[in-house]
Specification:
- The chain is α+β, with helices and mostly antiparallel strands.
- Helix content is 27%, strand content 30%.
- It is built from 11 helices and 28 strands.
- The protein has helices spanning 22-32, 53-58, 89-97, 113-121, 141-152, 195-211, 214-223, 228-240, 258-268, 406-419, 441-455; strands at 9-16, 65-71, 74-80, 100-106, 127-132, 157-158, 160-163, 171-174, 179-182, 187-188, 246-249, 277-281, 284-288, 296-305, 309-318, 320-322, 325-329, 334-338, 341-345, 348-352, 354-356, 360-364, 374-376, 382-383, 394-400, 424-428, 433-438, 459-462.
């Protein structure tokens, strides 16, 4: 694995409504950066980030997936998250590991219900938008932009705009680099008929940059202009503070707009050094310093595999973690032995020797550690607040199809609830039923499929029985 200093790391989660093209965008960014040499497609079930059989079958994302890439000397950790409400817990997990979000919006449908849910969920994080699928028939860029403004009640700023849309889509104008990127992925000068529009919109970016820093605002008001370096600095500060919402655009299927997007991620998106992480130490709130030599990390996702065992996904906030070492689980007060470290890319795991601040990686077979736990050195008992997952809203009874599998079902359900904290299992002593609760019927349907695939336990879902009570309704004399 290439070693990259913390200031050149970007940790970004892709989120948005289902079907907006997050997985295709992830695949396209990996391809554009040279990380993969063959472009996978959701319809063919061969993308990097959708690899579970349940995802391939339904052609939707169900679990978050990590897709790191290297570009222009920077490391960009992308986490692709599901877009369906039943799996919003994965977005919560991703938020615990990333420094910013890129919300993908379908140019045909505009901002939708899940767009708003995700935005409200992560409103304390820096958020940018990408209007995708501009090559599709009936794509509507201006309407999609307006829907973001209306639904989310914000004033986003265009950093790119398309030339044509639908069947006449020719490419995008990038206002930051002041270049035109064609559908053929060629960098050209801005077309003459688009220069006036580009100049007007770029002035909006310069004004936003000036508002990002008092010193820049004074200079802009007195001189009326800023240097390219000052514009980038002001935008970066405003974006990191959450006061600026950049809008990008393109087509992940046509591979249009990917390189200017990657350039913008490097130039404008915050590094771990620029996003303060709050924690507690001895009951007092502290701010973590990524350049501190003392280890601090959080487990944001747990995956259980019957063959590999438990895999813990962690984000390192400070210090260094090495294979064949020992760490301290501050949340549990237990020591853990680190035998191996892996850099995941989809389902593939590349073994690494160590990881430093800003890195996202996986550790196998941690016996006492689960999602939300803080790992640190025993002398440095800092606790990072664990992510808060939504409460289950839909409950059904579950039982094995084969008699005698009750105990095995109970054990396997326990493992899956450790993996997904939006699932809950309880036993109704009155009806003698095991009740499983989740975020929707699809959520629980996939639970039964995972029981079958991972643990060879066939289960069926039933309506929970209601323990009716008798009560006295009227008075009588005898």
């Amino acid at each position: 694995m290439k070693k990259v200093e913390v200031g050149k790391v970007r940790n970004i989660a892709l989120a948005g409504h289902g079907g907006s093209g997050k997985t295709s965008l992830t695949e396209a960014l990996l391809f554009a950066s040279g990380q993969i040499n063959r472009l996978g497609k959701v319809e063919e079930g061969n993308t990097t980030s959708d690899f579970e059989p349940e995802e391939i079958k339904r052609q939707i994302s169900i679990s978050l997936a990590l897709a790191p890439l290297f570009y222009r000397g920077h490391k960009i950790n992308i986490i692709d998250t599901p877009g369906y409400a039943d799996f919003i817990g994965e977005v919560v997990s991703a938020a615990a590991a990333t420094d910013s979000f890129l919300i993908v919006v379908d140019a045909l449908s505009g901002a939708q219900v899940q767009t708003e849910k995700v935005f409200r969920l992560i409103e304390k994080k820096p958020v940018a938008f990408l209007i995708n699928k501009l090559d599709k028939e009936h794509a509507r860029f201006e309407e999609s932009l307006q829907s973001i403004k209306d639904l989310l009640e914000i004033n986003p700023i265009l950093f790119q705009f398309p030339v044509g849309e639908g069947n006449s889509f020719k490419g995008i104008v990038d206002l930051f680099s002041q270049k035109f990127y064609s559908v053929e992925d060629k960098e050209e000068e801005i077309p003459p008929d688009q220069k006036e529009k580009a100049a007007t919109l770029r002035e909006t970016i310069i004004e936003a940059a000036a508002e990002g820093e008092d010193e820049l605002l004074e200079k802009y008001l007195s001189e009326g202009e800023l240097t390219e370096e000052e514009i980038a600095r002001g935008i970066k500060k405003a974006f990191a503070s959450g006061s600026l919402f950049p809008v990008f655009c393109g087509s992940s299927i046509k591979l249009c707009g990917l390189k200017p997007l990657l350039n913008s991620i490097i130039s404008l998106f915050p590094s771990p050094l620029e996003v303060p992480i709050k924690a507690t130490k001895d009951g007092q709130e502290v701010t973590l310093n990524p350049q501190d030599s003392s280890l601090t990390a959080i487990v944001f996702k747990t995956v259980t595999d019957p063959y590999v065992g438990k895999l813990s996904y962690i984000r390192v906030f400070s210090g260094t973690i090495k294979k064949e070492s020992q760490v301290y689980n501050v949340s549990k007060g237990k020591k853990e032995r680190i035998s191996h470290l892996y850099l995941p890319r989809g389902k593939h795991q590349e073994e690494i020797e160590e990881a430093t601040a800003g890195d996202i990686l996986s550790i196998p077979k941690l016996s006492e550690t689960f999602t939300g736990d803080t790992l640190a050195e025993e002398k440095n008992k800092v606790i990072i607040p664990p992510p808060k997952f939504p409460t289950p809203v839909f409950s059904v009874a579950i039982e094995p199809k084969t008699q005698g599998d009750e105990e095995k079902l109970s054990t396997c359900l326990q493992k899956l609830t450790e993996e997904d904290l939006t699932l809950q299992v309880s036993r109704n002593t009155e009806t003698k039923q095991t009740v499983v609760s989740g975020l929707g019927d699809l959520h629980l349907e996939i639970l039964t499929e995972r029981l079958s695939r991972k643990f060879k336990v066939e289960a069926k879902l039933l309506e929970p029985r209601i323990p009716y009570k008798e009560t006295i309704k009227t008075s009588a004399k005898a």
